[in-house]
Amino acid sequence: PLSPRPDLRDMPCRLPTEIFEAILTEDSLSPADLARCCLVNRSFADLARTRLYRDVTITKPQSMLTWSSEQTPEGMKMRTLRESRTCATCVRSLSIVSVDKWETPAARERLQSCISALLGHCLKLQSFHTSSTDTATHFLSSLTQTSTSRVLTGLSLPWCSIMWDLIRQQPSLTTLVLYREWSAMSTSTASRGGPILCQLKTLDFADTGGSPNASDFQALTQNSTTTLTALRLRLPFKRRGEERLFYDLSLFQCLLHLRITYNQAAFTEICADIFATIGSCPRLSRLTLDTYNRGDSWPVTTLIDSMPALPNLERLDLEPVTAWVPLTETDGSFLTAKYSSVRILGYPHSEFPRYWQDQDSVDAICAWCPAHGFEAVACGVPGDSLAEPLELMPDFWDCR
């Protein structure tokens, strides 16, 4: 039996439940005080467990294949998910980050088994993220075979035929992040299968493969014209033959934030197709323009001349930060004349600037803005993502 303690209000939270139960059997102690102490400590444990296992990222395939017992944070987390269903039910987001190829039948079978086990344990899973086609394929297979249905609200997937099948199975999907390889740019599989019923709030093309052709884009967004609030497009370096990269963005009446990643050489001709329609987006309040290469960017003066009138635009983000330099050398009238409602200017945040000119440009824009009635905001800091509030998107400027 445990020795009586006069005061257990400072009992450490790390004590296991069995210790609390043993202490409660001591008749010489006040049951009310002990119960209160145990309740508080258990509440702390529950809060810590919920926070620790809410978002699980697996970066080592071997830790998933072997349910690793190694004393590393990832190995310990995997072992806990295997042994504790209480912890597994806390998982809301699961990310499997691996570039490995599962080439042998034995490896693919083990991968399938582990993903099935994870799905079986993580009963409250809400989002799944992977850039591997193999992992996405096994996830779909496990999802189909599971005895209980999974209602997912977020998916991050590679561009492949499996992607369409997964999306069609999840009518409650609201956030979709797609990784697209150059080899898949002209591949369309949207016509296979039934319609896509999900009503997306966020659609992010987060890879250098560019955005899809118009027919695939229409298939992805056909049921989201009244719900889509955040959209990221990656424009190709040049037109693909005679095809026009034309998306009628005026259909999205609730669009709040549009981000366009462009190449300088193709900006004028390709962005003309995009800019021709966003002027009809009544609620568009934030526009972000960034480039594939830091050295290939237009200054703010050229960008403003190319952009359409946006009556409700409140925030304009540009990357690289040197694009803002021409503005700091003027009174800003060319900006306010076209966008009188803009009050926030965003620039990419970097804790360690790659070029000394970057820091000089940051200092210049941060000094210029308050003197002219604007607010300078660093993008890419924690909490800033494609559109707020979003829990599934990668860090704003690190999506490349």
Automatic annotation (TrEMBL):
Organism taxonomic ancestry: Eukaryota, Fungi, Dikarya, Basidiomycota, Pucciniomycotina
Record field: transmembrane: none
Pfam families linked to this entry: F-box-like
UniProt cross-references to InterPro entries, sorted A to Z: F-box-like_dom_sf, F-box_dom, LRR_dom_sf
Gene3D superfamilies recorded: Ribonuclease Inhibitor
Domain of life, source organism: Eukaryota
Domain called F-box: residue spans: 13-58
Protein name: FGENESH: predicted gene_7.70 protein
